[in-house]
Amino acid sequence: MADIPNEQCCTIPPFKSDYKPVGRTITLQVPGGEDLPVYVTGSEGAKIALVGIYDIFGVHPNTQQGADHLAQQCGFQVLLPDFFRGKGWDMNDMPPKEGREKMQAYIQSIGSWEIVGPDLLATVEHLKRQGVESIGAYGFCFGGKKLAQAAASPAHSTLFNAVALVHPTNLSPSDGDLFTVPVALIPSGGEDQTVMNAIWEKLQEKEIAGKCVRKDFLEGHHGFASSRSDWNNPKLAGMARDAYEVMRGFFAANL
Domain 24-254 - what CATH class? Predict the structure, then answer.
């Protein structure tokens, strides 16, 4: 397992629960689809950019704060597309009152690959028009699976130069075969460690092995680094900060 530059972990404060995002929202046209709102933060003149894929709750101050953090610490531009168009799952309905199957059907209706795939293409094309030369991506939970789907798609497999999977959901061991670019695997204690280990083993068999990194946050719950976390809790806020620092070092080394 490769080491991550992490010299700022002792100086950057834990994330805040009352954070106010510093970015702005633009709208992109998606061929054959609905207009796509995108949260943009960081230097628009940067030659390196990141695309973040959120969890099932959609746009949230926590994920916006994380994007702002990466933009500020890396000097990159960071984009958070709103694939759900403001219709993410209600955080107050957890666990789902009408059952998990109802929730899964809803997320599929607003966040299927048929929707997310074209949205990602439109986002990357926007960045390339701006002169961006290297693009990475990170995904939380739902977003981790979408990055695996992107890796499996001929139209998307070369969009990103490095990807980070943060407490990813619905992955299978075979998803580890899909990635051809460096991967940061950042599980929480809420994922199936057998699956996480199998994916990591597959990554270690590839030419990219030396550029891949893994950092487990086994004391963190699933969602600790995204919207499903209370950053009033200093421990959770500190772990979230540390997870983003892993991403910062990883992307700085690979983009």
Answer: alpha beta
